[in-house]
Amino acid sequence: MAHTSGRKSYARKRKEMELALGKEPDRLTFWEVTHKKKNGNFVNKDAENSLVVAGDNNLVDALSPNIHSSNASHDPTNGGHKKS
């Protein structure tokens, strides 16, 4: 799917957004920004439909950068359990 970040890496774009917003953008917001043109239109209909589906399915929470914080007891190096 096409994106609009040009030659900027996603890491650089994310950092710019973090400085502008005062916090790290969630994944859905970042995805939206990188799939819209400067005039605010999506790069194509697929990009727009993907965002609508994600929003309709309440995936904003599932795609947040803190997704693993609620799963703090998971430790893949110990069979999936937190070490005591």
TrEMBL record:
Source domain of life: Eukaryota
Pfam families per UniProt: Transposase_24
Annotated segments matching region Disordered: 63-84
InterPro entries named among the record's database cross-references: Probable_transposase_24
Polar residues bias locations: 66-76
Protein name listed in UniProt: Uncharacterized protein LOC109708139 isoform X2
